[in-house]
Amino acid sequence: MPEEIGVRRVAAAPPCARAHLAATTDGQVSLARIRTIVLSLVPLQFGVLQFFGWPQRSEPLSAVYAAALERVRVMEHTGYEAVWLAEHHFTGYSVCPSVHMLGVHIAHHTERLRIGTAVSLAAFYHPLRLAEEVALLDVLSSGRVNWGAGRGFDPVEFGIFGVRVEDSGRRFHEAVDIVKAAWTQERLTYRGEFWQFEDVEVLPKPLQAPHPPIWLAAGSEGAVRWAGKHGYRIMLGPHSTFAENAAHYELYLGERRAAGHPGDAGPVPMARFVAVADTDAEAARIAERGARWVGATYMNVSKATRPGCQDQAVLTMNEGAKLDRYLSSAVIHGCPQRVIDTINELRERMHLHYLMVAPLSRGSFLSFTDHVLPHFL
Questions:
Q1: What is the largest CA-CA distance in the chain?
Q2: Whole-structure pTM over 0.70, yes or no?
Q3: Distance CA 316, CA 112 (A)
């Protein structure tokens, strides 16, 4: 039976794949090769997770935004599905306090590229204001918004915005529910733990009907379970390992099925830091430099709000262990062919259907775009 299945798969393969198989010396097709062919028939989407890092304040901040916009212009004319804008506050790790305002700017300079938020930190907003801003962006971009929402985890942000960490999960869930209701109901009446409204008309409505696609950032088992149970899509961040992403994806599908939601969960964007160079050694140096920057400026013990929880264990690791974790099991790095091979491996190993690329250098983005992306298009 496996051999018959293999024959049928090969017969259904595109001409280029069949030609490659015909070149084998003994005419036998391994199961590994069959899996590779089958995966090649499943579309793989690509986006860019756009940070706005300002390391050492080595250039004017305006130059950071100009470089990002130039990257967006390249993305508009290549095979990327969306740019995903990362919201952060009070840190040089990424200086983008308003993904919606920047999204309007990008919409003005593009026509095709979708504009994602990764994420709008919903727990810090008044939900009706958030619903208005994202809907306005959707209208001004001619219906190109991918809305990603997250709770946040930085204790500095929670403290300055006056949101209690212990309330943030429930506040986030309530905000997301309110935003969705504001987009789909003519007038909104809502009575929750944090917000209450009576017969409010929220305008504008999004251009996309019934609303822009929604993803929730899910960096812990609890977040994955909640999203699956309530039927929301998820996105997975760049700091988890390949194995953790795979486990979260499987847990998510199980929770969706248990709650009676449709089996098709849609694409699950998975963000990965990426370093690409002419040689594996040079890419490894870029990856190490980027991982050290991430650990020093953001992913460290100063950000831990629940140090004993497994999902925050990376924050309390010593520098050497954290660096090894990123380089061996979280960052995609290498020459173009090695990166292609890694992505193919992760399609099966990590259930990768949508790669959200977070380039660790400007050269990495250009090399990925020129030498890796075309392989999958």
A1: 73
A2: yes
A3: 42
